[in-house]
Amino acid sequence: MSISPYINRNVQELVAYQPGKPISETARELGLNPAQIVKLASNENSLGPSPMAVQAMLDAASGMHIYPDGASFELRSKIAARHGVAFNQTAVGNGSSELIELLCHACLRPGLELVAAQYSFAMYSLMCKLFDATYVEVPNKADWSHDLQGMLAAITPQTRLVFITNPTNPLGTMVGQAEMDAFMAAVPEHVIVAFDEAYIEFAGEKTDCLKYVREGRNVVALRTFSKAYGLAGARVGYAVTTPEIADLLNKARSPFNVNLMAQVAACAALEDAEHLARSVEMVKAGREQFYEALLTWGIPYIPSHGNFIMVKVGQGKAVYEEMLARGVILRPMGGYGLPEYVRITVGNKEENKRCLAALQEVLNK
């Protein structure tokens, strides 16, 4: 007998988040050597983690029989110092995706609303559905960026959360400081505005959403160690916000939500400015490497502020499969309503070169 009649409808109707295809799965399916596969699908850092972070994890390994610090005191203290806020204005999560879920825990229920851009991180709609709230999707502007005035117009008395992804995933576009300021000048007080800045370290244009936090506005800045810091496997992200909202996030989280390895790795990564600079420089150089080839071939793309590029290839799924057969994993974008596109993570010089050679072959350029 099926249990489904007794299960929450909103959970049954969810479509599970689909991550980029792993190297191990590709190797098994296609009979390829894992060492010969290039994965450019999940916006990971090809430089890997900071050597300081690796050493910190090795040092911590013998203490894994002890629970981690439930308050993540050292990590949150470093985050607070980095951003010039108080300790009680911080929260950490099992990736910034957990913090997105915790915000929804705190703010959403049936009848309430979450506003986001049409093309933004898939977790927003998934979490909104999970909490049986209403997801309000605002079309992007012609240049693919968020339409903040359109998002402002979409806010109603039932709106509790607005997510602004800056730079956007999956597009790589940004909204500027003037647009942010105009939006924040008009947003009503009953709304929490979450600036999801997972890729901000790679951005060519620097913006400051933390000034709103310092002004005491209902704003959450979300950051992650998964991208520029190269700690995707450790799963650790953080929020900087008001003491009141930070308290809500810390109440909603599970105990020991950030493990010991992740805590010590993130603490060390924050101290390794050289590794961060190398990661950012690798991405900037890699973006130019892709742009040069794509312009030469006449292949349209969306200029990116992230560590990835959206490329218009026609039949995205077919190109993805052809690239997969050549040992290069990209991300088809049909699930985002962009079937003509693939998203390519910017890797190191050799990975990019191999990707471009395979892409040239597939597209017959």
What does this entry look like structurally?
This protein folds into two domains: 4-47 and 275-363, Aspartate Aminotransferase, domain 1 (Alpha-Beta Complex), CATH 3.90.1150.10; 51-273, 3-Layer(aba) Sandwich (Aspartate Aminotransferase, domain 2), CATH 3.40.640.10. Helices cover 40% and strands 15% of the residues. The strands form three sheets. Strands 2-8-7-6-5-3-4 form a seven-stranded mixed β-sheet, sandwiched between helices. Helix 12 packs parallel to helix 14. The chain has helices at 9-12, 23-30, 51-60, 73-83, 96-107, 123-130, 148-154, 177-186, 210-214, 243-252, 260-271, 273-297, 316-325, 349-363; strands at 38-39, 90-93, 113-117, 134-138, 159-165, 192-196, 219-224, 237-240, 301-302, 308-312, 328-329, 331-332, 341-345. The protein contains 14 helices and 13 strands. It is of the alpha/beta class.
Write the layout of secondary structure elements.
Elements: H1 9-12, H2 23-30, E1 38-39, H3 51-60, H4 73-83, E2 90-93, H5 96-107, E3 113-117, H6 123-130, E4 134-138, H7 148-154, E5 159-165, H8 177-186, E6 192-196, H9 210-214, E7 219-224, E8 237-240, H10 243-252, H11 260-271, H12 273-297, E9 301-302, E10 308-312, H13 316-325, E11 328-329, E12 331-332, E13 341-345, H14 349-363
Parallel strand pairs: 1-11, 3-4, 3-5, 5-6, 6-7
Antiparallel strand pairs: 2-8, 7-8, 9-10, 10-13, 12-13
Helix pairs in contact: 3-11, 4-11, 5-6, 12-14
